């Protein structure tokens, strides 16, 4: 039995036992109620009944939903606490004082200290290390070291960290452990060369590994000796393996991660300064007509090599030198290398071959061997 209220009970009684009325329809029986009353009765019985008399039907029941609490692990809690402590003003001690004995640059292997820029694309007062974060002044291209460095003392410290030289068996063991492509202690060296922030990455890998695998790609692979020199000079390590574009940098026997040098990080990449024009309108030693003829001859000749973006250019210098034994002008196709890499390749070839770049057009490099006479034995 449904618990009915008084007002609903009265309505139900009137629907079930209606008063006798005179119907105009001849077939309508008094014992059978009209269809409209049956519809009312059907709707009434299917309504939701509530205890409160003033509560309308179809009112949803109120349930208290407890908010779901996210269960955080102990590791996440420690990480959050570490972030909060690191973001606190007491955690930062600025400016950072670094004892590294060299000038800070964005790239050590791809910039030449002997070439001075003629202009800047941004004000030199904006240091990429951040305002007030470094005790060195940024000049637009570098942050010079404050005090002069004693090279003999630095060499002694480096030898003390390296310790005794590795034996052949130890070198073979390290090479076999770190030279493979699935090594998780790898750093990719791109067109920026040996950058400043890469030094910090190397020391971070040296905390848990004796050596680091460095994979070189792009423009720096034209001069791998230069890359090896700057890696050893700036980190204090030792190159124990060099195969094409793969290097292994050893940290040393007496390396202590707790006493590693402080390397302040660059917060952004500074804009490259403006340097003097590389290609002159008239090459040195030629007239205007001769220069024009050399350029047309180079554009109409077949390319010596086709260089791709982020490729391995280890054998480019030797190929250009061999070509200059028989040819006076050489063309390099850098269609897929990009305009910026094309200019960097020309600058490096000018110093390494040596030669004279006389034209950059449609990502094509035209090189002239110059007035110096060459023989096949050179």
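-> sequence recovered:
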């Amino acid at each position: 039995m449904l618990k009915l209220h008084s007002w609903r009970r009265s309505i139900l009684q009137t629907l079930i036992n209606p008063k006798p009325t005179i119907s105009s329809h001849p077939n309508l029986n008094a014992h059978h109620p009209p269809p409209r009353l049956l519809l009312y009765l059907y709707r009434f019985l299917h309504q939701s009944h509530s205890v409160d008399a003033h509560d309308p039907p179809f009112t949803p029941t109120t349930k208290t939903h407890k908010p779901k609490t996210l269960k955080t692990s102990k590791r996440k809690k420690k990480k959050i606490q570490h972030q909060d402590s690191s973001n606190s003003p007491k955690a930062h001690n600025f400016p950072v004082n670094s004892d590294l004995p060299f000038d800070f640059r964005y790239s050590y292997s791809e910039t030449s200290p002997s070439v001075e820029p003629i202009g800047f694309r941004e004000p030199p007062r904006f240091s990429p290390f951040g305002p007030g974060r470094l005790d060195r002044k940024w000049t637009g291209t570098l942050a010079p070291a404050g005090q002069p460095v004693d090279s003999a003392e630095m060499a002694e410290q480096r030898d003390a960290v390296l310790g005794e030289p590795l034996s052949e068996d130890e070198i073979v063991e390290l090479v076999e452990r770190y030279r493979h492509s699935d090594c998780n202690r790898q750093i990719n060296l791109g067109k920026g060369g040996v950058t400043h922030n890469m030094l910090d990455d190397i020391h971070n890998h040296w905390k848990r590994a004796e050596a680091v695998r460095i994979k070189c790609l792009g423009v720096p692979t034209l001069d791998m000796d230069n890359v090896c020199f700057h890696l050893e000079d700036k980190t204090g390590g030792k190159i124990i393996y060099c195969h094409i574009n793969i290097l292994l940098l050893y940290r040393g026997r007496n390396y202590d991660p707790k006493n590693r040098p402080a390397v302040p990080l660059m917060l952004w990449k500074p804009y490259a300064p403006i340097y003097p024009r590389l290609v002159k309108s008239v090459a040195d030693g030629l007239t205007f007509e001769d220069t024009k003829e050399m350029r047309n001859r180079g554009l109409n000749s077949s390319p010596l090599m086709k260089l791709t973006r982020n490729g391995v250019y280890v054998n480019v210098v030797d190929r250009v030198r061999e070509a200059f034994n028989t040819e006076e002008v050489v063309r390099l196709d850098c269609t897929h290398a990009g305009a910026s890499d094309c200019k960097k390749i020309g600058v490096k070839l000018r110093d390494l071959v040596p030669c004279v770049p006389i034209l950059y057009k449609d990502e094509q490099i035209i090189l002239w061997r110059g007035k110096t006479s060459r023989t096949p034995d050179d």
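The two ends are 114 Å apart (CA to CA).
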